[in-house]
Sequence to fold (305 residues):
Amino acid sequence: MVDYLLLDTKIGEWRGVTGRTHNWNISREIVRRYSKPVILAGGLTPENVVEALEKVLPAGVDACTGLDLHPEKKDPEKVKRLVGVVRAWEGVELMSLGARVQDVLYKVDRLPGNGELSVIKNVGVREGGVAANFAVAFSHLGGRAGIITVLGRDEVGRWLLSRLKEEGVDCSRVIVRDVRSLRLHIFEDSSLRRVFFVENMKTLSMTLDEIDMGYVSTASMLFTDLFLGKTAVKAIEKVKEVGLKVSIVIPHGLSVMGPWGLGKEDALRAMELADLVATSVLLRLITSAKRTLGDFWKRSRLAQK
Fold:
């Protein structure tokens, strides 16, 4: 087992320290497929590191010859410039904290009563999770979003992680554990009435110490769906101390949120601190409109150029 993967350039017998870049498209695909953090190296300089970060989305970068004053001696100004450029790029505008799940949607003829039988018409699978959906929507609008969540080291977790990366969401702080990923089974009838069953509920648990608050503080806003319960409330308290805006969505009633560790007092405290409080109805409107809004935003930006 390894803790991270380092990607570098090979030229002839030289593996690394070549001062040359390599095909970043291949590196991007490795980042997308690999669940462990990926560090990018190979010909990185203060001038090209942002392009590399944007194309590859690695967890970190490693620069060597691109910072040389002359062989065997680094240029302090180049080092300072590269660190400054990376730090300026690294910060996200929105940090999303909460659920990333696989939704399994069952279309049924009707929702049965006790002892009754119903027929499943078809089954579909999609990415879900309120926090994840919000990060993706923000990314579609042209913003830089990151997410903090927990995934299992299984096929479902790998798929959920790769899809977030494909959407341009920063996943460098996602925690991957040797558990099964969270799944939500949704049974829906023709009138759109639904019942929900959660699988692997305990996967989505995290302590405040596991959240990189320094990184969260680089954002302008924290969004949370409160599925991390008391940990989410503590995170809200921390970021408010440094002046971040906070937006929360309460996806379900407290009777549903209770098993996630969110009590009435916790919910009231979160709402007291938040700058914006919304319900799942509003979130569904945002999610359904995200592609239209994203296209409009992109066209507006092109028009300005």
In short: The mean pLDDT is 85. The CA atoms of residues 118 and 277 lie 37 Å apart. The domain at 94-105+125-185+198-301 is CATH 3.40.1190.20 (UDP-N-acetylmuramoyl-L-alanine:D-glutamate ligase). The longest helix spans residues 280-304.
